[in-house]
Design brief:
39% of the residues lie in helices and 22% in strands. It has a seven-stranded mixed sheet with strand order 5-13-14-15-12-16-19, with helices on both faces. The N terminus is likely disordered. Bound molecules: flavin-adenine dinucleotide (FAD). The site of flavin-adenine dinucleotide has 32 residues, from helix 1, strand 3, strand 12 and helix 9.
Length: 491
């Protein structure tokens, strides 16, 4: 439609996929007063899938803006401590109350939920449930200059102005977007783009009853060669992840699907492995309530939109879960997308029209420009941590020992703060941020404060480089002399 053409129908978005990104997109559009429908393939709005889900402070700020802070907060357990153990269960360094300090600085804490309870809580707060439609299997998507049409397998069709693909790492919307792009402009999506997601690790994850001997409200990290345990211990239960390196890198189009017996085989492989000084993996595994084995996909697309189709969440950027950041990055993406759409739609409404394809593309471009660097940074960082924790590189074990000793106690908390600080809020709900910590969010910093922070980040990178170089030298000499660089680590 030409930008000047009048049309009385209000703008309408079609969200495909009602996971974390889709649900937050729906909330953001509700808050902006933009019409939408959300099409979810599953038969229920929230399925009993996954195990734990950690929400970081920058997205608690968004939860606060959306008016659901107290209701969501009470569903989870706020974290205080981090513990790190060597392969033999001895501590790498003293425990640290990093998360407690993060709460003081950011005003909101890092909180762990049972994933389905978190999703249920966010779904329950949607004001208009009739817009969240379940059991919707995609048949095809058509788009032209007037709008989009989403055809469903049950023979129905939804019409609107844009499609937002929040349908996860195996996104069908992405497939339609690629097909459409290559149809309109042959070669628009190179073959390489379709190979963006790969998998080098698999993860057994689940929930267990609380086990005596585990510190509560804590993240417990236990590393070994090519594998790693991450445990989030709450009052009465533990959410856990066990990562294992695969023999080679797989493209996600042919990622392995695992059966329940595969999961049990992995779970039973390491029964006598220590987690800390007193608890063995057997204790956690034997108290399991729920578990699943799946591939860990990683990758960031270059092309996040085409025409009137735009991707958000795992469909565009997929990262390993070691930092608990994939879903959080999805929320950050939909926040930026909602801000841009809101500005454009409100501007067009004042002159009584809907946005043109070109105007929408400009908003999608800006969205990708803002989000890509941060999504990529988190993808790279968490991918690095996955390998660091699984000693997947010859200097990592020594680096693990060296880092806390040369970087000082404040290093981790400062890293956490710098990770959360740039998180965006819904700029049309500015007044709705109610909690304050001691730090400023990036969107509150003056230019001078930003420059000062950049300077500090540079010095930390130099320190990190020195630690890396020192670790490499120490590790190389350990290997050369056949000495174990860490307790319980086998050369
Ligand atoms: C073990 C593990 C632990 C994790 N822990 C954390 C954590 O603590 N914190 C964190 O931030 N991230 C974590 N992540 C990552 C996080 O789970 C994902 O990044 C997040 O779920 C992505 O959200 P999404 O909405 O983009 O996709 P998804 O959560 O995959 O949701 C996609 C939705 O789309 C639906 N769908 C799919 N195809 C279609 C279709 N064709 N039509 C309609 N609907 C469709 C699906 O049914 C689903 O509801 C973890 C991941 C794993 C594997």
């Amino acid at each position: 439609m030409a930008a000047s053409e009048k049309d009385s129908r209000p703008f309408r978005a079609i969200i495909v996929g009602g996971g974390i990104a889709g649900l937050f997109m729906a909330h953001a559009l509700e808050a902006a007063g933009i019409d939408y429908v959300l099409l979810e393939r599953a038969l229920e709005p929230v399925e009993e899938r996954g195990a734990g889900f950690g929400l970081w402070p920058q997205n608690f700020r968004v939860v606060d803006q959306l008016g659901m802070l107290e209701d969501i907060e009470k569903l989870g357990s706020e974290f205080k401590w981090t513990y790190n153990f060597n392969p033999d269960g001895s501590p790498v360094a003293n425990a640290s109350n990093n998360f407690e300090k993060l709460t003081q600085r950011a005003g909101y804490g890092f909180t762990i939920f049972r994933r389905s309870e978190f999703l249920r809580g966010v779904y329950d707060k949607l004001p208009n449930k009739s817009k969240f439609v379940t059991g919707m299997a995609l048949e095809r998507i058509e788009q032209d200059d007037k709008g989009v049409k989403v055809f469903l397998k049950d023979g129905s069709m939804e019409a609107g102005d844009i499609v937002i693909g929040t349908d996860g790492v195996h996104s069908q919307v992405r497939e339609f977007m690629w097909k459409h792009a290559n149809g309109v402009r042959p070669g628009a999506i190179p073959a390489q783009e379709k190979m963006s997601f790969t998998s080098e690790y698999r993860c057994l994850y689940g929930v267990s009853k609380m086990v005596p001997g585990l510190q509560k409200s804590s993240l417990i990290d236990c590393n070994d060669k090519h594998c790693n345990w991450l445990l989030f211990s709450c009052e009465d239960r533990i959410f856990w992840l066990f990562f294992e390196k695969l023999g080679k890198s797989f493209n996600c189009q042919n990622c392995h699907r695992y059966s329940e017996s595969d999961a049990v085989a992995v779970g039973e492989k390491y029964l006598s492995h220590p987690i800390n000084g007193t608890v063995m993996w057997r204790d956690i595994w034997e108290n399991r309530i729920q578990y699943h084995l799946g591939p860990i996909e990683e990758g960031v697309l270059n092309q996040w939109h085409f025409g009137r189709i735009v991707l958000a969440g795992d469909s565009a950027h997929k990262m390993t879960p070691n930092l608990g950041y994939g879903g959080n990055q999805g929320i950050e993406s939909v926040v930026v997308l909602a801000n841009g759409l809101n500005r454009l739609i409100k501007r067009c409404e004042t002159v009584g029209r809907r946005p043109s394809t070109e105007e929408l593309s400009a908003v999608f471009d800006e969205y990708k420009e803002i989000r890509y660097p941060r999504a990529k940074k988190h993808h790279d960082l968490t991918g690095y941590i996955t390998r660091f924790d699984a000693y997947d590189g010859f200097m990592y074990p020594t680096l693990q020992w060296l880092m806390p000793r040369i970087t000082g106690k404040e290093y981790m908390i400062n890293l956490f703060v710098e990770l959360v600080r740039p998180g965006r809020k819904l700029d049309f709900l500015d007044e709705r941020v109610r909690r304050r910590g001691t730090m400023k969010w990036e969107d509150e910093l003056t230019m001078d404060e930003k420059k000062q922070l950049q300077g500090r980040t540079m010095s930390k990178s130099v320190l990190f480089g020195i630690a890396g170089a020192a670790g490499t030298v120490v590790m190389a000499s350990c290997l050369y002399h056949g000495i174990s660089p860490l307790p319980g680590f086998h050369v």
